Amino acid sequence: MTATLLKEASPPPTAPADRDRRRRARRRARIIALAFVFPALLLLGALVVYPVLFSVGRSFFDASGNRFVGGDNYTEMFRDPATLKAVRNTAIWVVVAPTLLTGLGLVLAVLVEKIRWATAFKLLLFMPMAVSFLAAGIIFRLAYDEDPEKGVLNAAAVSVHDAFKDASSYPNARARDGQGLTKAADGSYGTTATASPGDTVGLGLVGVRAEDLPGSARPAYPASTGKASADELRGVVYLDFTRGGGGEQGKVDKAESGLPEMKVEAVRDGKTVASGTTAADGSFRFQGLDPGSYTVRLPASNFAPPYEGVSWLGPALVTPAIIGAYLWIWTGFAMVLIGAGLAALPRDALEAARMDGANEWQIFRRITVPLLGPVLTVVFVTLVINVMKVFDLVYIIAPGPVQEDATVLATQMWLVSFGGGNNQGLGSALGVLLLLLVIPAMVFNVRRFRGSQR
């Protein structure tokens, strides 16, 4: 009876017709899915797969594309100093930019949670992502301009510098040849003939425009006619130029102006024994001098060129400057992504830590950061992939003379292939190298995504 019940309870065997029907249904579903996917696969093959395969094949041919050279392009690639510099700069980008961005994004994401206008602050930081790399490059090319009249960073640097250190009032001033002043190697001027206490000397300079004279400047002629006492050395520093013509070179004329705030020194046996600053009429006096011969000197600081700021786009700073522009664009991206992970953290763990007496730094270091580990890894690897392909900012921001100092693999590939090198064999080899460097990071990111989905 038990066998009879089991036989009645078991399902009837599937008929061959039912199996065929199900097989046809599955085949039809696969065909429909393939029909929907085929346009995307076709586009992917035309825009990604074919260019990759073509570049790999092209990398084994010479510049003309007619002669097979094997691995010569890859050998030449690592012998070329410009390519080695591009590899070095790319390594700097990969190490510095993603690390700074991930750190900044983490800190900002944690701090934004504690302010009232968090949404507005996030929007403000994320806004540069809406700016194209071309526009951002132009913005920072202007911001980094060495001319303080154009570059905002150098304008700020010059303002801060001049607030703490006075700039020279006469950077273009110079002495006439054969008029009693000799220029030293350090840029200072000294009198050709020596002077003694009781003398009055005139130090005439040119090269100063009348409109550049300080507003306090007064005529020098009255000071040049004064008499010095027996222990006093007097003189006047003046602009040896008369507007409208006339006057006599090397002599103070009535229409000529004194040069105020000019530093003057009395030198004896190579040592400065007295110093002073000219008055509004350019006059100066050294009192209490011992008898003897002195040289009157105008120190080089009077003629020092004005501080022009920092050469942001010079060979030494061009790569850090471009990385700074990249940080401005991508900090919001890192902050928003990490902030989303931060919002998903279990609040009970944070509250339990606070109840146990942990301070905010301990919570951040021992709870927040470890729990955000997967998110931080994804952000870091994504930025590494993006950094390896950076091209626009480097090409736009770096001026022509320092383009080679700032080049990375992407810009070097373009320069070799289309930017004057016209060697698409070597350029294809660089493209293959860049692809091989990007693939491990992409595979790692895909595995992380799959692991998080499980």
UniProtKB/TrEMBL annotation:
One GO BP: carbohydrate metabolic process
Chain spans, region Disordered: 1-22
Family: Belongs to the binding-protein-dependent transport system permease family.
PROSITE patterns in the record: ABC_TM1
Transmembrane segments: 31-53, 91-111, 123-144, 325-346, 367-385, 425-446
CDD domains, per database record: TM_PBP2
Species classification: Bacteria, Bacillati, Actinomycetota, Actinomycetes, Kitasatosporales
SUPFAM superfamilies xref list: Cna protein B-type domain (SSF49478), MalF N-terminal region-like (SSF160964), MetI-like (SSF161098)
Record membrane topology: Multi-pass membrane protein
Protein name, UniProt field: ABC transporter permease subunit
UniProt-listed InterPro entries: Ig-like_fold (IPR013783), MetI-like (IPR000515), MetI-like_sf (IPR035906), UgpAE/MalFG_permease (IPR050809)
Domain named ABC transmembrane type-1: residues: 87-445
Organism of this sequence: Streptomyces liliifuscus
Top-level lineage group: Bacteria
Gene Ontology cellular component annotations, sorted alphabetically: plasma membrane
Subcellular location: Cell membrane
